[in-house]
Amino acid sequence: MGPRYDGGSTLVIIDLHRHLWSIFERYAAAREIAARGGVVGIHAHSEAPVQDVEARAAEIRAEMEKAGVDRSCLLLADYGLRLGEGDRSIVEENRLATDLARADPDHFIAFVGVDPRRPDAVDIVRDALDAGARGLKLHPCSGYSPADPVCRPLYALAGERGVPVAVHTGAMAAPLVSTYASPLHIDEPAADFPDTNFVVLHAGQRAWFPLALDIARWKPNVYLELSLWQGLLIEDEARFIGRVSEIKHGIGLGRVVFGSDCPGISKVMPLHTWVDAFRALPETARRHGVEITDDEVGQMLGGTAAALMGLSR
């Protein structure tokens, strides 16, 4: 019997962290630097791809069907103040996601993404939430701290609307900066806004995972998301399971949400392989002397995300 949640209901798998396009598809500067640096397994195109929303949505649906993913959350990172504005304004990019989610709610959920330093950031977030967005995405690698007072009106609005705040953590390639991508910068907001739920994207990655877990131990409104851990699973299965075990004993796997970070990570591990790795966790963990139950897998793959976003079957 497969993983179950919510009083025995069949599991709905939610990918809480994916994108219509990767940073390398959206920004020429990132493509050029990644190509020069030999970034492994990343979409580092020499030319900007044609951004056809309907074509990409069809690709994502096919990918989801192959993987058994029911809903994908479309997260948008606002890099405009760091990299220069893209081909579309940030308002237009957010509207693409909310329009797609409204047109196809059976597959897509929109998160609004904005740099809180924009003068109209609160209005952008409020308008997107009014249009159906179910979360907020912040990317501090654009050069601001999540603890900066400029973020506080966004956290208050998220708490009022009952939507989670997803925050990138972990180092990023130039021209983005990693200074404020430590989970430490989420600690103060989580303390000051106890009614707002925060999702630590990538769980701090490798360098800051212990810090992310320790903060989550003391802040019950902090959740961990494990995308970009695909590489760790490939390199060292025992270490991957060991870290999942640390989370289980530290805060419980009910505070973990599944995310892929596709398409940027797809060449490292396709979505269906990553989903299968989660489905197989009870058996894989058992080989390493760790117990993970089907119910815990169900919470990670969809149950917790559904609760965070107020979804029901």
Automatic annotation (TrEMBL):
Pfam families: Amidohydro_2
Keyword field contains tRNA processing: no
Keyword annotations of the record: Lyase
InterPro entries in the cross-refs: ACMSD (IPR032465), Amidohydro-rel (IPR006680), Metal_Hydrolase (IPR032466)
Residues annotated as domain Amidohydrolase-related: 14-311
Entry keyword Lyase: yes
Organism: Pseudonocardia adelaidensis
Record-given protein name: Amidohydrolase family protein
